[in-house]
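Q: What would this chain look like folded?
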Amino acid sequence: DAVVIGSGAGGSVMAFELARRGLDVTVVEAGARWDPTTFEHDELAMFVRAYKHSGLQGTKDHDSLIVQGFTVGGSTVINNAIFLRADLDRVLSDWAEAGAPVERAPLVAAYEELEDALHVEAMPEKLANKGAQVFLDGCKATGIRGELLKHNRNTCIGCGWCNYGCRYDRKTSMLVTYIPWAEARGARVLDRCKDVEVIASGHRARGVRFVRDGEEQVVEADRVVVSAGAIGSSGVLLRSGIDLDGRVGRGLHMLGGLFVTAEMEEPVDGFDGIGLCAIAHAGDEIVIESYFAPPLVFSLRLGGWFGSHFNRMLRYRHFVDGGAMVGTDPTGVVKLNRKKEVEIDFAFSQRDLERLVAGTKTLARIYLGGGALRVFPSSYELLEIASEEDLGLLDQRIKRPDDLSLGSAHPQGGNAMSEDPGKGVVGTDFRVHGY
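A: My prediction, written as structure tokens:
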């Protein structure tokens, strides 16, 4: 009855909802399926196994890294298990103005159902790494409201390896929740499906075609659900010859930014406990969160070169870490090159950069207020901020987006919803316009 393309947060829930209504459902996923007990506490090994392009998916100009999961369960397998509701008071009016009115009540009901199913609760303080307390102390010192986030884990042991798959099944990712729940109701999940495209008869979808284990396969279906992520969904539609006069893949944007690291006098051991723990409510334009990572990934964003970088890394136990992010301008485009491979044409705008510099200043103030000796933004030039006076260095030295090590784990857009078929890719009934 239905084939779902993609098994991440959207596709898995969709497969379950269709299967529990009695439909015959097949899910096709580009990534491989893994037994969580085989997940390793090894950054390089898990990048290859569970990340898109082994963690090296980037923009066409190579200036920004875009991190996504590539496995059954999608990015929920390698994310930080943080559960946030959208601010409906803020976004519903914006959506309506853009031609996409959405009712509040069904959204609220869906949030409540998901939060119950995924064991969403306030993060216990004992599971947060000690850097989160430095962050919260700094928020209090600077007059910014900070708090621990809500998360979707069940009896977590705080190992700190959330971004590499939870080998203990404590993170309630789609791999251990909605996927097996859908399968228990008869759904089938096919992994390692390459070059997926929609088969259409005229303007009606009739199924999907893909390559699996070296052979072309077809799944015929009355309904096709494209739920392959902001970038992957555009790739599927374009590969299928669906571009709607060039609208497919346009308007890509992301919640993206940079990491900001601070050095404490005494060891903090930020690796011990959950990495992403707390948020600072510093305004509508900037998202500021605390974070920490195992040493390899941590080293990639720690400023400095050669000897300076080496000497900084020797102080790994003394660091706390966080991120400053903005919702970028929707200027990105997902397209296919001559080999029918996806290209991401996106760059942070000057307005994005100005907001990121402002966010970096705020995060630096938070860490200095929490007792940090000095703060290191993730910049290519060696920058150290030890006082309020040093914040001016950011204005002097950061002039272009590629002066910073930028990236995102939250690509969005590309296939806008609008009631107007001439503006959007899908209508408010979620159908692709004209199909």
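The radius of gyration is 22 Å.
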